[in-house]
Design goal:
Radius of gyration: 37 Å
EC number: 2.7.13.3
Distance between the termini: 60 Å
Strand content: 5-15%
GO molecular function: kinase activity
Number of domains: 3
CATH topology of the largest domain: Heat Shock Protein 90
Subcellular location: Cell membrane
Number of strands: 8
Catalytic activity: ATP + protein L-histidine = ADP + protein N-phospho-L-histidine
Enzyme class: transferase
Mean pLDDT: 80
Low-confidence stretches: none
CATH architecture of the largest domain: 2-Layer Sandwich
Structural class: alpha+beta
Length: 393
């Protein structure tokens, strides 16, 4: 029964139908007038509620027609109420004419305000629909640009934000495909040439062994690239699950610095740790956090000239434990700072360095998966990459 009849609307109509006669009775001590008022407003309010419920459920035509029906219903209820009061209350012709004129005046104003309000709202909806249709056709330069502070305006703002995100993601995807194609093309081309040379029996046995060794190197590069891509995809999709435990960040950094000393020595770069008396611990996976440190330190070594230095700082902060890897290299250009954590992005100073440009992107994904954050600090010399992990007592 509750699904067929608008019980709340009928309850409201009943309450109003009783409230108005009560005001007449108590305010003017007019029992007959209160009874006439009840006879007028009770059926009128019930019919208005039922008609409004029919419009709300059926939603005939477009929104413009629905607004028009609602406005017409309100004007009709007003006109009918006034006409019934004039007829049943036996007002003078002068009072009756004034009452009818006031009803027409009020109805005209209601219809005009409803028309203006509905037109503005529907124009905004049309702008949203037009913009979404253009986005569906592939355009990314369109915007709703809504004005106001209502729900439709907020929908338009969300649509504009969605278009910006979609444009950025599509641009990053195109750059990703281009970077993957570029990084795959070189080793695959080299593998093809080397395989052809071996197949054609070019050179002696030692030369063929050298070619085979080069082929193994290219295969390892391809395997590393594919593994990094797979790991990055799973990290960003939150599909990896790790065994989490209490991690002493002090010891983790010390071990990573010691492990990277031979690679730094080969580049004539000094790498050392400044633990700053840190004793904080975090909750995480030691292998993955070590991978972050290895990526950052190795990156810093590649970008530091001979006789330069790489320093790993550890600090206890109120927000958590922070680790920073600072080098004395060329640094990162200001216009490239916001993109260094994007997959395959390599700045001008990184064009000749090994790797596909996934190290910082993977590091960011791992840190964020641990509930932390990673960023670039301002540096007068070189580059400072800092990340924060939640501290655990």
């Amino acid at each position: 029964m509750g699904r067929r009849l608008p019980l709340r609307g009928l309850a409201l109509a009943l309450a109003l139908s009783l409230a108005l006669p009560a005001v007449v009775w108590l305010g003017y001590d007019d029992a007959p007038g209160a009874w006439v008022t009840l006879e007028i407003v009770a059926p009128l309010s019930v019919l208005t509620v039922l008609a409004g419920e029919w419009i709300a459920r059926r939603r005939p035509g477009g929104l413009r027609r629905q607004f028009a029906l609602v406005a017409g219903l309100g004007a009709l209820a007003l006109a009918a109420g006034v006409a019934l009061f004039v007829w049943l209350m036996f007002l003078s012709s002068h009072d009756a004419v004034l009452t009818v004129l006031l009803a027409i005046y009020a109805a005209a104003l209601v219809l005009w305000v409803t028309h203006r309000l509905g037109a503005r709202a529907l124009d905004d909806l049309d702008a949203v629909c037009t913009t979404l249709a253009a986005v569906g056709e592939g355009r990314r330069d369109v915007r709703v640009a809504p004005r106001g502070d209502d729900e439709i305006t907020r929908v338009g703002q969300q649509v504009d934000e969605m278009i910006v995100r979609l444009d950025r993601e599509e641009r990053m995807r195109r750059e990703l495909f281009a970077a993957v194609s570029h990084d795959l093309r070189t080793p695959i081309t080299s593998l093809g040439l080397l395989a052809t040379a071996i197949d054609d029996a070019i050179g002696d046995e030692a030369t063929r062994r050298e070619y085979a060794g080069r082929m193994n190197t290219h295969v390892r590069q391809l395997a590393a690239l594919i593994d990094d891509l797979f790991d990055l995809t799973r990290l960003e999709a939150r599909e990896l699950t790790w065994t989490m435990e209490r991690v002493a960040v002090h010891d983790l950094v010390s071990d990573a610095v010691e492990a990277m000393r031979p690679a730094a020595a080969a580049e004539a770069v000094d790498v050392h740790a400044d633990l700053n008396g840190s004793v904080a611990c975090s909750h995480g996976n030691p292998e993955q956090l070590s991978r972050v440190l290895f990526n950052l330190i190795q990156n810093a070594i590649h970008h530091t000239p001979p006789d330069g230095s790489v320093t790993v700082f550890v600090e206890d902060r109120e927000q958590g434990v922070e680790v920073e890897v600072a080098d004395t290299g060329a640094g990162i250009a200001a216009e490239q700072r916001e993109r260094v954590f994007e997959p395959f992005f390599r700045g001008d100073a990184s064009r000749r360095s090994p790797g596909a440009g996934l190290g910082l992107a993977i590091s960011r994904a791992i840190v964020e998966a641990h509930g932390g954050s990673i960023w670039l600090e301002d540096a007068t010399v070189g580059t400072r990459v800092r990340f924060r992990l939640p501290a655990q007592p």
